[in-house]
Amino acid sequence: MILFLISFLLVFSSSYFITSMxxxxxxxxxxxxxxxxxFANVVLTIELLSLFSAxxxxxxxxxxxxxxxxxxxxxxxxxRPQWTPDIKNFFYKYWQAVRKDKYLFILSIGFIVLISSAxxxxxxxxxxxADAGAYHVLRSLFWISNHNLNxxxxxxxxxxxxxxxxxxxxxxxxxxxxxxxxVGFVAFGGYLTAIFSLYGxxxxxxxxxxxxxxxxxxxxxxxxxxxxxxxxxxxIIIAGLVxxxxxxxxxxxxxxxxxxxxxxxxxxxxxIGTKSTAFLAIPGTALFMLVISVYYxxxxxxxxxxxxxxxxxxxxxxxxxxxxxxxxxxxxNPIGSEYFMTVHRNQYGLRAIxxxxxxxxxxxxxxxxxxxGQYYGTDIQGIRDSLLYLLGFSTIRDxxxxxxxxxxxTLVEPLMGLGVxxxxxxxxxxxxxxxxxxxxxxxxxxxxxxxxxIFIINICTMSYQLAFMIFSIRFLMAFCVISAPILAYSYSKxxxxxxxxxxLFAMFYLTLVSTHLWARPFxxxxxxxxxxxxxxxxxxxxxxxxxxxxxDHLNRNDYKNFYTNEPCLLKRxxxxxxDNKNKILLFANMGDDLILVKLLENKGxxxxxGLYENIENIDINKYNIIVFINDNQTSSYIKQxxxxxxxxxxxxxxxxKLRKHLDNPCYYLDNTNKYITDSDDIDVxxxxxxxxxxxxxxxxxxxxRLADTLPISAKPxxxxxxxxxxxxxxxxxxxxxxxx
Length: 740
Known about the structure:
Elements: H1 2-22, H2 29-51, H3 57-77, H4 87-100, H5 102-124, H6 130-136, H7 138-146, H8 158-161, H9 165-177, H10 184-204, H11 209-220, H12 223-228, H13 235-255, H14 258-272, H15 277-280, H16 282-297, H17 302-319, H18 322-331, H19 338-341, H20 352-362, H21 372-390, H22 420-435, H23 443-465, H24 473-482, H25 497-512, H26 522-530, H27 535-545, H28 566-577, E1 583-587, H29 595-599, E2 606-609, E3 625-629, E4 632-635, H30 641-644, E5 648-650, E6 656-658, E7 666-669, E8 688-692, H31 695-702, E9 704-712, E10 726-733
Parallel strand pairs: 1-2, 1-3
Antiparallel strand pairs: 3-10, 4-8, 5-6, 7-8, 9-10
């Protein structure tokens, strides 16, 4: 931990010296520059080390020292400029604003509750998000153990195909602290970037301090923003980077300076290297930059645009191209495998734009924290489906990752939308921003119209590029944050009923939802502390027992009987029954949370993952123990479809049959979960490979002996929770016996 703090200080010291050289004293941009340069510093450090398979704490510290020394040398040559934040002036303006509007003062208290809760959760909570356990954070652990960012075999192809920048920062943290913690600070940094940039944009629009504070407090009270402030989802990071790019580009045009435009390009390049959402936001952002360039540069509008494009290309190559190059090398496509892309791609062309647009707009009916969805959800969904039917879009199917009920009321992070405020604040402001310039055309109304149009363009782009999925609510949230300036219309200096309603809902979300998230319940964690549980045990219960509600009746020495996360049971089994001298090969499934298992490497274990589809090409004799789950493996990393696609056919009753008997058969499913056979079109791509594991095949070809099993019970933990039954099979390699 001490080494990480040293690295942290080295990185942010470098960022401060760089910021002092390129930023005016006391300017807001300084905060953004520090965050952007620190992000870029970490990414560049890890990527450089990866080229030599040298990712390690020592390598990171060496480059940290080199970058800091270079920064200090140049800073000294520049006569040692110093950037200092103008905090005193900000708080003076803040105090003047809240004195005139007591609602803002109370919202400030709610905002402090949100920030305090987020900082506590980021510093205390282990990683519990399902996507983080399956790929976001998991891939970082593989990079650390492999000492490079190169692709590796793993059942969940998201680990190798998707952009990597935020996960590189996770790797920077995890390689030093060697436990599942602190990665939530990365999203918190993205949130701060969004808030600073939003404040800057509103300032350039010449809005009052009261209106700026109102917008920041309201956007912070969106439920999906609250759950991501200290989480492991990256959408708030994307929103922050895109907003920073827009703000700095605007600032550069006003001042006619190249540095803000360069930093704007750096911000967007980092966004492209962080998540594909940044690609979807390109048309809207391009429109914004075009309008700003024309407004400030008239017939020379192309100059800042060309500068931005040139700077963006350079920054992309340096800070964001690494995994895109790997994808091109391995798949012939920088975006990734055709097998993976087929499940996300829109298959209906332009017709999908209005259909998906309607579906996304109905996602503003989000009742996070309230049970209203039980009473009105079916009716709302019926209205949506009827509208799609009347317009002739009912035949446009949703993507694979969706669910029939679209009206969320839970505090489950992947499903949370904007909450009630999305419907009663964002949607009315969006409509008014589109309409008002017709009646009152001035600088502010036209700028707010621009942000409303950007939102519409972003949703249309997403509707055209991607199949509709319920989990795309996270993309919707990012686009709402990017267009948050339109929330300025919701503020009123005088008291009215509408303002009171917004205020009450905002306080509910800031104070109660932020402390009652389903997977990270601040209120329940505090209760564990009051009952005398040690910190280590509380963290373990969070990962393995989901902070069960029966804590008042829980025997402190028997809490492990309440595990709901089966990797915890696998981890405990390995620790208790397998010596770390043994090398383990685990055939996990796509989507499995494997963080705890991979972290065992910090205790001397050596654990690899394997693809059963490719088992004949694996050197099994390197391993002492081979672990299978149930009697099959499901994987989205597909290697042998071209060789195996003719092996299956449809029987007379529609059943799937093998053309020839195989000891290790694998079946392939397309993006509709339909089995692919030799009768399908040649351009049908698989998304999932499902291989059957047979005991006789293992014994015959690899000389393995079933040594033990670990059953995972489907017994419900309580009335609200059930889990799937599973069984782990532990085989001993008789050619390389288990070491005692």
